[in-house]
Amino acid sequence: MLHCRKMEKDSVEKTYYPKAGEMTSEWILIDAKGQNLGRLATEIASLLLGKHKPIFTPGVDTGDYVVVVNCEHIQVTGNKMEEKIYYRHSLYPGGLKAISLRDQLNKHPERVIRSAVWGMLPKNKYGHKVIKKLKIYAGPNHSHGAQQPKPLAIGKE
What is the pairing mode between strands 85-89 and 96-100? Predict the structure, then answer.
């Protein structure tokens, strides 16, 4: 009986934990033209966290860099263009500012996608580290050509 326990103890598999040298980050290019905001944000959050990789480990940065272009041409369902409001505060009394989704897309379209993706990431040091891997551009041009991002088609079957 004692011999069997020793054999079982020696044959236990250890849990794999990815090391920093084993992880590689790719660059992914996403065209947001005509995409639904929520579905696009969930896909981007998944790529940033690395959930699409077999070595995914919660709390370990296994994700990729994501470049989003044409973010000014996203779509939303229902009456969200007028009814969805973004708030920010200047930290001064009476400093609450509100802006609708339509106005935010006209002035700062990058903030719309960044806000939607940030809502799907953990709110801790890991989340702050991951959101820095997201690069968003209003138009079709981006400055990451040297990294040779791979285009990814989302929602187009």
Answer: antiparallel
Task: Note whether residue 88 is domain-resident.
Answer: no
With 0-12 CB in 10 A as exposed, 13-18 as middle and 19+ as buried, what is 36? middle
Q: Give me 133's structure tokens.
A: 């891997």
Whole-model pTM: value is 0.88
Q: What's the structural domain count of the chain?
A: 1
Structural domain including 120 reads 25-75+107-152
Element (H, E) at 86: strand 85-89
Beta bridge partners of 65: 27
What whole-number distance in Å separates Cα of residue 135 and Cα of residue 111? 11
Q: Is the pLDDT of residue 1 over 70?
A: no
Alpha carbons within 13 A on the beta-carbon side of 70 = 13
User: Domain for residue 55, yes or no?
Assistant: yes
Per-residue model confidence as pLDDT tens digits over 76-134? 999 999 999 999 999 999 999 999 999 999 999 999 999 999 999 999 999 999 999 99
